[in-house]
Specification:
mainly beta, 4-stranded antiparallel beta sheet
């Protein structure tokens, strides 16, 4: 199964810590180095 089939989208917002493009998974943005950085519960998003 490819990343696209798994529901991952890369190339979205850059990680605020390392500037690497993050993956969007459901309601979360995930940095490959730092893990979940943002999710839909973040009020400042």
């Amino acid at each position: 199964m490819s990343d696209a089939d798994a529901g991952d989208e890369r190339g979205g917002r850059p990680c605020p810590m390392c500037e690497t493009p993050m993956y969007k998974r459901h309601c979360k943005y995930v940095c490959p180095s730092h893990g979940v950085v943002y999710d839909c519960a973040d009020t400042f998003w």
